[in-house]
Write a structure and sequence with these properties.
4-stranded mixed sheet, globular, 8 strands, 389 residues, alpha+beta, 11 helices, 4-stranded antiparallel sheet, 42% helix
């Protein structure tokens, strides 16, 4: 990096650290965080504190909930280097990120790539202000790993689509305001060419949700039903019957998010934040912890490298590698935490907080966003170009 660029980043670091210090309320800093502290935004979100709400609003006003997006779309227009400094200073000052959402991680990048200018200016600023909470309508009961086999059907009725069908494993559908969904709009076309990508208000008549209870005791996933749902034609992203192109683009961001810990459920706990020297005494556990820390650092550096590549045109199928390794790393992290905590870690709420339900939640990491088997299949065929069966 040139000296001028380094000096510029150093000045930005000083500026943003000062801004964080002056604007972050006490109840979003200097304390351990877990999934319950995540601010998801949306019409129905209940803020944990007035400070959490104030922090999101202050960051949104400055564009820092979506630091890389253009100012015209509610972002801050930061460079990749400046965004990295912003995240580093949040971590150094122990301040929680102001907003997490599928809108920021998945839909936003898809709209930036495929949306009309009107769609970008309408939806993106609302996402950055935390006004819309989105869920993802991809998976169906008969189309798990074969995502392109979706059967939820949208009949062309002239000025609108009439949609009927069912989605499953819809994360937080019962709390979301809108859903982005893959809908078959041409039953005669090859399965990858007859799908459209639609945006749907969850309050539209004919939509209902049913939470699915998991072994963790929580219900982050839902079944979602569409019965004669009317969707205006202007709520399509990209071209009619070319929604698979949008879906693939979005999936690369979803895999990067899940692999990199953007969901909050992943990477929420560092080893050092939970274990003390008294917890880790036997040589085998110490060796496991040291290996995990080294692997985590290497993975973080790899993520940084791929984010730079993404800026130059996307990481494509390599996102499957990030998703696979990131989720396996996170599962290893929680296995180690549970092993080190012993029987005390099994308590639902105890000395280790909610570690047990979080450990159970990690079992879904290698399923959600595409199973590990599907990721390995993509790597073998698309990246390594190995022959199929």
């Amino acid at each position: 990096m040139a000296d001028g660029a380094q000096e510029s980043l150093a000045a930005f670091r000083e500026e943003i650290a000062d801004w964080i210090d002056k604007n972050a309320p006490a109840d979003v800093r200097d304390r351990a965080f877990d999934e319950s502290d995540i601010c998801w935004g949306g019409r129905n979100f209940m803020f944990k504190s007035e400070g959490q709400k104030l922090w999101m609003e202050r960051c949104a006003e400055r564009g820092l909930t979506a630091p890389r997006w253009d100012v015209a779309y509610g972002g801050a227009g930061l460079s990749r280097g400046q965004e990295k400094v912003w995240l580093e200073e949040l971590a150094r000052l122990r301040v929680k990120k102001p907003l997490e959402s599928f809108g920021l991680w998945m839909l936003g990048p898809a709209l930036l790539a495929f949306g009309t200018e009107d769609q970008k200016r309408h939806y993106l600023p609302q996402i950055t202000r935390g006004e819309i909470r989105w869920c993802q309508g991809y998976s169906e009961p008969g189309a798990g790993s074969d995502l392109a086999n979706v059967q939820t059907y949208g009949a062309d009725k002239g000025d609108h689509w009439l949609v009927n069908g069912q989605k499953i494993w819809t994360s937080y559908a019962d709390k979301a305001d809108w859903i982005f969904a893959l809908v078959r709009t041409d039953r005669e076309a090859p399965k990858h060419r007859g799908i459209s990508f639609l945006l749907v208000d969850m309050t539209t008549p004919g939509i209902s949700t049913k939470p699915i209870k998991l072994i963790s005791g929580k219900s982050p996933f839902c079944e979602t039903y569409f019965t004669d749902v009317v969707i205006p034609k202007d709520q399509i992203v990209g071209e009619v019957n070319r929604g698979w192109d949008v879906a693939k683009h979005l999936l690369t961001h979803e895999r990067e998010m899940i692999g990199g810990g953007g969901s909050g459920a992943i990477g929420a706990r560092s080893i050092g934040s939970v274990l003390t020297d008294d917890d880790v005494t036997d040589p085998h556990t110490i060796a496991r912890a040291q290996k995990l820390e080294v692997d985590s650092l290497a993975f973080a550096l790899t993520m940084d490298r791929y984010k730079d590549l993404a800026k130059q045109g996307g990481v494509g199928h390599a996102s499957a590698m990030l998703k696979y390794y990131g989720t396996e790393l996170n599962k290893d992290r929680y296995e180690l935490l549970m092993a080190a905590g012993g029987s005390d870690a099994l308590a639902w709420e105890g000395a280790y907080g909610a570690l047990a339900p979080e450990w159970l939640r990690t079992k879904a990491n290698s399923i959600e966003g595409g199973t590990s088997e599907v990721m390995l299949d993509i790597l073998s065929k698309r990246v390594l170009e190995l022959p199929g069966e």
